[in-house]
Amino acid sequence: MIQITPQPLTAAAFAPFGDILDCSGDADKIINQGMCGRFHDRAQIEVGEGAAGISLFNATPRSFPYTLNMMERHPLGSQAFIPMHEHAFLVIVAQDSGDAPATPQAFITAPGQAVNYFANTWHGVLTPLQAPGLFAVVDRIVPADLDCDNLQEYWYDNPYIVGP
User: Fold this and answer.
1) Residue 38, CB half-sphere, CA atoms under 13 Å: how many?
2) Is 136 exposed, middle or buried (0-12, 13-18, 19+ CB in 10 A)?
3) How, if at all, do strands 152-162 and 7-8 pair?
4) What's the confidence (pLDDT) of residue 154?
5) Domains, the chain, with CATH or none
């Protein structure tokens, strides 16, 4: 197995794969009688012929060392994973290499960070590191008969081990 060490999630390192959703920098606008900062339009939502929808995911926490044996991508839409807690989670992504993921990269989020994967980005499954594993997910919603081509999986013959 091949070892991957997760790095801190930064905008520069994650830029090829998607957007980091957080409240960094100054608010774009102050609203609600001056009591709320709006950090406007932080992600590029792609849904193709579908509509954007919000789903809730409740994932079982994982631990290190974590075995990465599969990655997936969604060619027809982006996916934003927004934790409904302040705990870090593991983010694994890879560039495309001829319809297969290239060498994966792993990141650890900071409290208050979420991610939005661009359409067609290879990524690992939702990987919380502690309970609760509750996330709001914004992605493409279409009738089941139209969604048959929006999930591609790649299974590794030689899995990667992710750990600090």
Assistant:
1) 9
2) middle
3) unpaired
4) 98
5) 2-159 (2.60.120.480)
